[in-house]
Amino acid sequence: MVVESANLLISSKLKAGTHPSDLVDLLNELELEQKVELIHKLQDADASLIFQELEDFEQAEILKELDLEKAKALLSSMPSDDAADLIGILSPEEASQMMKIIDEEELLDFGDLLKYPEESAGGIMTTEFISLPDDIPVEDAIARLREIAPEAETIYYVYVVDDEGRLIGVLSLRDLIAASEGTILKNIMRRNIISVNADMDQEEAARVVSKYDLLALPVVDEEEHLLGIITFDDVIDVMEQEATEDIYHMAGAKEVVGMDLTKAPVSKVVRLRLPWLFVTMFGGVLSGSVISVYESTLEAIVMLAAFIPVIMGMGGNVGTQSSTIFVRGLATGEIEQSEVWDYFFREIRVGLTMGFFCGLLMSVVAYIWQGNVYLGLVVGTSMLITISFATLIGTLVPLVLNKLNIDPAITAGPFVTTIKDFTGLLIYFLVASAFISYLR
Fold this sequence. Notes:
Elements: H1 2-15, H2 24-28, H3 32-41, H4 44-51, H5 56-65, H6 68-77, H7 80-88, H8 92-101, H9 104-114, H10 121-124, E1 131-133, H11 138-148, E2 157-161, E3 167-172, H12 173-178, H13 185-188, E4 196-197, H14 202-212, E5 216-220, E6 226-231, H15 232-250, H16 266-293, H17 295-300, H18 308-332, H19 340-370, H20 373-403, H21 414-434, H22 436-439
Parallel strand pairs: 1-2, 4-5
Antiparallel strand pairs: 2-3, 5-6
């Protein structure tokens, strides 16, 4: 009854012009078995519209439960890049079964797309683009455009290729419409083409689209043969995916990538989060060992303990600030690879400046509170060194990992904070020990 009602409601709303994305919430209220039943009951065209709005992991769950005829209808209606991505997240056995039901022509497209790494430009491109030879007049180009436009993912750009399929020019739809009849394409096409290699990382390709404000980006091989295009909607997905992964890495909790938050298995969540908790726990033990080593110093000057939280807190916050800004700058391209060392030395100057002002303020607070100028000097000096060192570590650690081609996002949360807790305490007690005779 619930499925039947949802079927009628979705069908009627789609006919009334409701956008499919506004109807996805109806599916999310259903169990998996009900979703599968609903997809079966919907007309292929309506089922396809709704299905394409789901997250890829939800699509995979449903696809595995559908009969082969319905699965084929859904896959055939999807853009080739999206369908290839969906098949790519299935198990090898499930993917092999799906490949058997796909038409031979579509199978060739999927095979071309699946051979590229998932997070490369080739992995997210679509082969449904419009390309034309350079020696035809614009009226013939427009006529061909009318014929092949329904099969293309976007028609805003027309790519001009030579006899061997090499990309030699590009035209916008506006260029075609504005040109006079009889004008040959090679006379109006733009030759300074922005393109990327199929092996480029998807994040780098997304930056190219963003930098040049493109609606689509051509993807070529080493010989400049046109392989496909990356459309703007795919770029939005990539940017969201990369930003989401970075945020979860920074928090030391990446189980939410690629699955339903409410349905993530407890065992997997624990397995992914626990290592970072062990790192934090180990850091806490190290910090405790520092306190135990300087226990006599604390016993002699009890008021030193009152400033431990602020020393550790400031160091951790500054370290997290530095690492987060640096990692995000790398991710968005604001910090180029050639600029990382300039940024690093600038960040050290920032740390010294912040450390000076925070240290000066804490010196005044400690002196007013306890009336001991040397205690103020110890606290202020410790704050200066701790903040400066936190800035250094917060930038240096992700910088080194970036040079080693390791995702620096994993250092921006628990890792840097744990290091700073330990080093902040060590700095504080070393400075205090140096002035112990003046503090008694």
